[in-house]
Every structure is written in C-alpha cells, then in structure tokens.
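Researcher: Structure for this, please.
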Amino acid sequence: MLAGRDRELSGIEAELAKVGGVAAVYAHGPAGIGKTALLRAVAERAAGAGFEVVWIDGRDIAPVPDQLEDALGAWAEGGRPLVVLDCFERVEALGGYLRRVLLPALPEGAAVLIASRRAPGPEWAAREERRFLSLPLAPLDAEASTELLRRHGLDAAAVARARDWAQGNPLALELAAAAADRTSGSPGPGVGLDEDFVARLVAERLQGPHLATLAIAAIARVTTPELLAGSLMGADPEAEWEWLRRRDFVEPRGLGVAPHELVRKAIRACMRRDHPLLEAELRRRVADHLYAIGTGPAGPLALTDLAELAESPALHWGFSWRASERLRVDGLRAGDLETADQAVAGHRHAGVWEGSRALLEASPDHATVARDRDERLCGITVCLTPGTAPEAADEDPILGPRLAHARRLDRPDAVIWRDMIAVKGDRDPDLFGLLGMAGLLAATSVSPRYGYLPINPALPGAREFAAAGGAVHVPELDARVGEETVECHLLDWGPGGIIAALHAHVYRELGLPEPPRPSVDQAVSVATVREAFRAFGIRADLAGSPLASGETIAARSASVRAALTDAVDHAFDGTPGDQLTQTALRRGYLERSATHEAVAESLHLSRAAYFRRLRRGCERVAAYLSARR
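Model: Predicted structure, token format:
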C-alpha cells in the first residue's frame, strides 16, 4: 500500500522518460521506509510504458559467479529492460560489477533501479554512458501518514496515537494499524523502528490460529504455497496462504513471500523463546521441503538455504554464504594472481600457492574469488572435479593423487578443493565459508557424493569444520609442499550427496533420527549425457550410447534423441537462469544451426560463461534422466 510518494514517483518517471544513455536510480533509506513498495509501483507503471521489467531481490542471489546472470536471464532482442535490484545492501559488493559490466551492456533507453538501506558512494556518480539519480526516502509527512492509517479504518484517536510514535515510517504505521487496539503502551514519539520494538509488537501477535504460518514464514527465506502445504499441521494451506500474503509486513519474494527482515528476525526470536518445540518441528518440515526441491531444478539457493537452517558454527566456518552481504563471488581478473602473490610472499603457504597459481594461469575457470564492495580481492579458492580437471592436474602433488582416488571410486562429479587463501589482512570471519560453498557450486550443479578437503592443520577452525561435516582423514593422500602439509579429509556425503547430508545434519541438530536416504546414487553420468549431446546428429554414435534402447541403429539413435529432447524440455523450470541454460542446450546441441561462438554471442554470453551453461545443462539433464530411470 503506497502512500505519500507522488514526488518520488514523478522524479523516477521523469528520469526514465529522458532520451539518451542508461538511467540509474538509487533509492535509499532506513528499514521500513517503503523502498520496496516504491520500486513495485515504478515497475508496474514502467511495464505499462513498454519496459521489460527484470526484478532481482538481493536476498535471492546465491554466492556463485552465474547467479546475477541467472537472475537477469537474456532480455529480448530489441527490448527496453528495466533492471530492478531490491535489497541491494545484501549484495552491495556487486556494485562494481554492475557499474563495470552490466550498465555498459544495457541498450540505449534501458534503466537500472536500485533500493538500499545505505546511500550510494561517490563511485556511483553520473558518467557519459549513464545518468544517475540518488533518491533519499524521507519519512511520510503527517498528511500521508494519516491517509495510510485511515485506509485501515482506524478512528481519529487511534490514528493520532499510531501517527505520533511511528514518526512517518511506513512499516511502523502498517504494524501499528494492524495492532491498533494494543498500541497504547507503545513507545512515544521519536522511537526508531528497531528490532527490540518490533519484537515487542510481534510477540503480541503470535497468538491464535495463524501462529504456525507466521513461524514458517520466519524460518524459511521464502514462503511459497507449496511450502505451506507441506509444512502446516491441521490447517487449510490455501486459506493460510491467502491470509499470509495479505499481511502488511509481508513482501513478495520470487515465487513466494517473506516478512520484512526486521519482522522475520523478531518472529524467529519469539518462537524460539516462547514456542521452542513448535519452532523445532516447523524447522524440520521446512528442511524436508528444501531437501525435496533441492533434488530437483531449484538450483543452488535450496542448498544454501538448507545449510543456513543448520546451527553449527563449525560447519558454517567452511560452508556458509553469510558473508554474501559484504562480499561477492567472481572469477579471476587481470592482476588478481599478482595480488595473491604479494599476500602469501614469505608465508609458509607460498609453496602451495605457487602450484595453484600455475594451474590457474592455464585454467582460470577453476578459480572462485571473493571481492568486497570496493572490488578489492579478498580471497581465492581453487576447486574442480575429475570431469573438469585439466590434464596438468594429474601431475600436481596435491590434486594428482586425489583425482586418481576419485576415479577409482568412479565419481567424476567428486569436488576437490586444492587451495583456499585469504588475501586481505583483515579477513572477514565468514570468508572461508563463502569460498567453500561458492567453490562447490561453481564446480558442479549436481549434489556430489564426495568432497576432498585440503585441510591445513595449523589453521584454526579447519579440522573442526571437517569433523562437523563428517570428513575422514586419509593420510595416504596428504601432501607435503614446501613448508606446509596439506592434509586430505574425505567427505562421503552418502547417497543423495551433499543436499541429503545437510538434510540429515539438521535432523541431528534437532535430536531426531536421520531421515531416509535415496537407495542408489545417480544412474546416468554427466559424461554419458555430454557425449550423447555431442553425437546428437551422428546416428551410429548415438546408437552406441548407454542411453539407447531398441534393436536397430535407427531405433536406438532415435531413442537417445527422444530422451535428450524430453530432458531439455522438462528438466528446467521457468526462472530466467534455467531458461538461459535450456536455450543454450537447444541451440548449441539440439539445433546446431550455428557455431558455439555464434550461439554464445546471440545469448549475450562470454565464451566461458556459455560453456559453463552447457556443462551445467548436462548435469541437470543427467539428474533428470536418472530420476526417470
């Protein structure tokens, strides 16, 4: 419900209507000031004016290089995109990428609309290729506040009482209106909308038939109708969904909704304090739902969400994306290796880094790096799988024996971390967790069963992380490089891979018996799918594929084509990232109407990004065919 923002709406519309360059509008203000409501009003009007709206929530960006690209998708040729980036403070480190890569790539007349709790820095100043408008959002004035409260049917006394203490904050006004008969004891004028106050107000509302619905919305990052249907106990999920999405403190998020972050934190705190058994049961049910969608086409967010349901600090040390609010994940750039050289110079880890550097000079795609909001390099991890490892890796003293071990296990999707270093002296406490998760997600899009951890026994927290994940030290795979010993700790996540192991971890933390696991691992390998795609137009080669069925060459090759076509049609969902990967597979393998380079250019992808799409597409098709079998 938007009120009192006519001036801001007019200013943004005037900026979007100007001719020439790309418009960038940066709306900023404190929590609850109405940034998201303003953006949605602008987006609705812009869509009617011919813009192609691409909405991205900063809370929905997983810490892997392709995630922003996934969220953007490929806008239509000749279209006029309006890229809306809400909750930008959660991914503020993406600012350099937006200014350096995204804005220059947008067509003439496009626009970017950003909302953040923090004001833009001087690096956002207007340049020749774009216009820039900084738009601070002030509290609503008395007239607009009164109008908003009267829409809720409050009488004059209740309006005056709520308006006095809300001080023009739209979220405070909405919360006060919803609890008007209980605001007499609220703080007086001038009190900010902080977590303590929201907790007091929310605690009064956590009663009655909707308690479980509110709790689920606070536990899960995003609540969908499907999540409610699978998590509620004895309530009508359709009715509860309609009730939830109409709450004034609930915002649309992706395919679902989520409470405002202040409200979400307050509800979780109240539930753990006042209803611990119910909170634990609902957390289990949310974990069950995330596990179910994580084994399908939900992408990396289901995995990261499930990891965040776990509470083990030792696990989060090496596997978490909490630092994504401060750091962003990227690939190697010119100068990064030299920066890392300086960071490890004279350190006992220098010998280990020397081998990592040599590998990355030849195969830079195996690096995942973290940068801060100023685009400074903060950390690097080197991660690969037997299916993607370059030939030189077999001679590497760390990777070689571990690759051979994984191949003996017949696990081409096993994830092998070679190295992980912090570059900045003031290391973020969650850096290694971000690099650990991002390295895995960059290496494979499936749920791998095995992971090889390079543990430095002198690094505080490293062995504890390995133990928390259930890793076993394999001394014969340890490597002595220079002055440092790199231990190998092998993670066997069991059938179902890491997503099933995280699901079981949440159960253990809740004191529950482990849930059932899949009885078998993936039946169709990624290598089999990749070879079949490459031979799609060669009938004799297709007939020899393990995917083939039938008696004659014609029947066998036709069966493989049908299986691959069906998988490409149905293994992906409607998200922009999935559609982009699906299109890459169709044009690159099934249609073959142009070279790979031409297809990449038509999709606005670099060559490296395009081939990452093909690799991830093969992994998804293999998982789909395995499930069908």
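Researcher: Any notable elements?
Model: Residues 142-193 form one domain. The chain is about 50% helix and 15% strand.
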